[in-house]
Amino acid sequence: ALLQARGQGSCCSVVHVVSCEEEFQQQQLDLLWRILDPGAQTVLQKHLVCGPVKVTNPSLPIGADQYFQLRKRQMYEASLMKYGELAQDEAWTEVIDTLTVAAIRFEMLSTAHRSQITLDLEDSSISTKGTKSGAFVMYNCARLATLFDSYERAVERGTYPPLPPASELNFSCLREEGEWLLLFNYLLPFPEVLQQAAQLPAATKGIRITANTEAVCKFLIQLSMDFSSYYNRVHILGEPFPHLFDQMFARLRLLGAVRDVFHSALATLHLPPLSQI
């Protein structure tokens, strides 16, 4: 149960997080508490019910540890197919672990908590290419890291000048529709997405409450799709001609903000950003 103080001298809230199979049992516990403890009458109790997790065509019952190991093996094999021997390097062990955790968290958290989750344990269900997977989000986060690493190395070689402060940039150079889409659909609404994900509307009728636990995952998936579409179409680091620098700098500042949003959103899921894939 989650306890949240509501201010000095007022009642507190208790949120019972419970699976749908145990919902009735938890309601009995709620009622028993109210009967046995007179002080419980001042406590606002709510129940956040989580839907079931089903597995398609399971040959044997599978536990959490087995599920993690299965997804890790599948992620390793998918990475091996895409990157070849590079994925066998020791440095990739941590990358594959992070991709596995990301895949599992997005599988579990992209669906509203009250809905059923159906897990497909076949190898084909895990991919480094699928646009709605945690691996796809991590891949695009790594693309941004690679972009800025390439730019910084080019600055050290003297190919490009250092990135000026934002106050000195000409953002009217951003004329691509995809650039304004990133700004208005993701950068500006991001604080509101975080607020929605963190809210628990306790002041509702009935004993049940709902939470937007899927908001951040859905936001990251959509951001990854639109960023990927833009990044595949637009060449950010162009020829080192002075008349092209204004546009390049404006784009780098925009994508720097996109990178910050990726990092902040992933942090809410306790996922570290990857610097390479």
From TrEMBL:
Q: Where is the DALR anticodon binding domain?
A: 137-277
GO biological process annotations for this chain's record? arginyl-tRNA aminoacylation; tRNA C3-cytosine methylation
Q: Which InterPro entries match?
A: DALR_anticod-bd (IPR008909), DALRD3 (IPR037380), Rossmann-like_a/b/a_fold (IPR014729), tRNAsynth_Ia_anticodon-bd (IPR009080)
Superkingdom of this protein's organism: Eukaryota
Any GO molecular function: tRNA binding
Q: Which PANTHER family match?
A: DALR ANTICODON-BINDING DOMAIN-CONTAINING PROTEIN 3 (PTHR16043:SF1), DALRD3 PROTEIN (PTHR16043)
User: This protein is called what?
Assistant: DALD3 protein
Q: Which organism is it from?
A: Ardeotis kori
Kindly list the organism's lineage. Eukaryota, Metazoa, Chordata, Craniata, Vertebrata
